[in-house]
């Protein structure tokens, strides 16, 4: 039975077109499969870390944020963190709870003018919470096991430029790891 509307278009063709348009619209709202339409937000003010509760901008070192497909329990804002280690720990736990992280951002020390300072025996990098200081983990390399600490002690220091990774490693040591390859074992190895 042909359900054509007289113009040669049948119901199945119309429904297929509507479904395809709806799928594209939904993907656009979510930022696509890899979150390309999602931008990082500034983490200034009294924002507390969703992993440990510390105020994000009050502590040195890299900070992070994760945008989830369901926006919960963060209430429509990304999950926010005072360190890259808190970022990864939270992400691992949420993935284990069947949540879908769309995109993860970390401070990109290739984008900012970092200050290096000492506090006691720790070497620390300045914190950068402004939205333009972040890059997607897909474009970052982190250095683990360096002499530079962060808000939670031993830290993963992220860079987007390979020459910055090598320069950092020459000064502070550590192992370069693709940020997308970081797993629980890497995080636990920092302690």
Automatic annotation (TrEMBL):
Residue ranges crossing the lipid bilayer per the database entry? none
The protein's matches in Gene3D superfamilies, at most eight in alphabetical order, are given as: 3.30.70.2050
Please name the SUPFAM superfamilies in this protein's record.
Answer: NosL/MerB-like (SSF160387)
The record's listing under InterPro entries reads:
N2O_reductase_NosL
At the top level of its lineage, which domain of life is listed? Archaea
One Pfam family, please name it. Answer: NosL
Cross-referenced PANTHER family: HTH-TYPE TRANSCRIPTIONAL REPRESSOR YCNK
**Protein name as catalogued:** Nitrous oxide reductase accessory protein NosL
Organism name:
Halorubrum tibetense
